[in-house]
């Protein structure tokens, strides 16, 4: 099974993290992932689990689809 990485989800997460004045370390701690893992996701080098992205949507009070808008 091929995993398709949604474009721009990492950039959207970085945008929300910075908008809420959180460091990579702070958000990583909240999410229970390493700072390196979060950094790699924001730079679109790796994927975060769907559950982790759902937590981000809850933290930042945005619909889950916000991270995937524009993906066809």
Give a quick precis of the structure.
The protein is mainly alpha-helical. It has 4 helices and no strands.
How would you describe what is shown here?
With 72 residues, the chain is an all-alpha fold. The chain has a single domain (9-67), classed as 434 Repressor (Amino-terminal Domain). The chain contains four helices and no strands. The longest helix is centred in the N-terminal third of the chain and has 11 residues, at 9-19.
Give the total of beta strands: 0
The CATH class assignment is Mainly Alpha
Q: Gyration radius, to the nearest Å?
A: 11 Å
Helix content: 40-55%
Low-confidence stretches: none
> Architecture, according to CATH?
Orthogonal Bundle
**CATH-assigned fold name:** 434 Repressor (Amino-terminal Domain)
Instruction: Tell me the strand percentage band.
Output: under 5%
Shape: globular
Count up the domains.
1
What string gives the helices and strands in order?
A: HHHH
Main β sheet profile: none
Give the N-terminus to C-terminus distance in angstroms: 19 Å
The CATH superfamily label reads: lambda repressor-like DNA-binding domains
Can you tag this structure with a few keywords?
single chain, about 70 residues, mainly alpha, 434 Repressor (Amino-terminal Domain), about 0% strand
Secondary-structure topology with pairs:
Layout: H1 9-19, H2 24-31, H3 35-42, H4 50-59
Helix pairs in contact: 2-3
């Amino acid at each position: 099974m091929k995993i398709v990485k949604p474009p721009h989800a990492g950039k959207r997460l970085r945008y929300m993290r910075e908008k809420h004045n959180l460091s990579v370390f702070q958000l990583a701690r909240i999410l229970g992932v390493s700072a390196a893992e979060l950094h790699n996701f924001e730079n679109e080098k790796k994927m975060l689990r769907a559950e982790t992205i759902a937590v981000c949507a809850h933290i930042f009070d945005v619909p889950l689809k916000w991270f995937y808008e524009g993906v066809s």
